[in-house]
Amino acid sequence: MAITFHQQGIPFQLKEKNKHKAWLRRFVETHGKRTGDIAFIFTSNELLLQMNREYLNHNYFTDVITFDYTDESGVSGDVFISVDQVRINAGQFGTRESGELRRVMVHGVLHLLGFRDESDEEKRRMRILEEEALHLWSKEV
Fold first, then answer.
1. Torsion of CA 130, 79, 65, 133, to 10 degrees
2. Considering its fold, how many domains does the chain have in total?
3. How confident is the model at residue 52, as a pLDDT?
4. Is the separation of the CB atoms in 10 and 83 below 8 Å?
5. Which residues partner with 24 through β-bridges?
6. For the domain that residue 98 is a member of, what is the CATH number?
7. Which pLDDT tens digit goes with each residue over 19-38?
8. pLDDT tens across 4-21, in order?
9. Strands of the 3-7 sheet, one edge to the other
10. Where in the sequence is the domain holding 136, given as residue range(s)?
């Protein structure tokens, strides 16, 4: 089972790939699950908007779309991330792009773990879990 990183239609390379893999595996394990095959695909706002329209019937930009393939063998799926939107978010929230990217990555993993963010309460819970994951990152590095 593997965590992989790809780019689609944009020039982007994730730094510290092995640290990201170890961090994400550890995060999944803290939820009592095994890591299956998780692919992160870094792309543009335009592609994610197109996917949001096609697969979710939403007509707005988003930072992450997750396709969940989790089964009894492990937490698995495809996590598409708009690098454009991550940059916009970082500017809006006054955070570093690298930290915002990790937050969005783990947000996708949380969806694979079964967490949702439709209600205000679910959104608050997701934010708490994202912060826990970012704290775990600081221990990994």
1. 0
2. 1
3. 94
4. yes
5. none
6. 3.40.390.30
7. 999 999 999 999 999 999 99
8. 999 999 999 999 999 999
9. 3-7, 35-43, 75-82, 64-68
10. 3-140
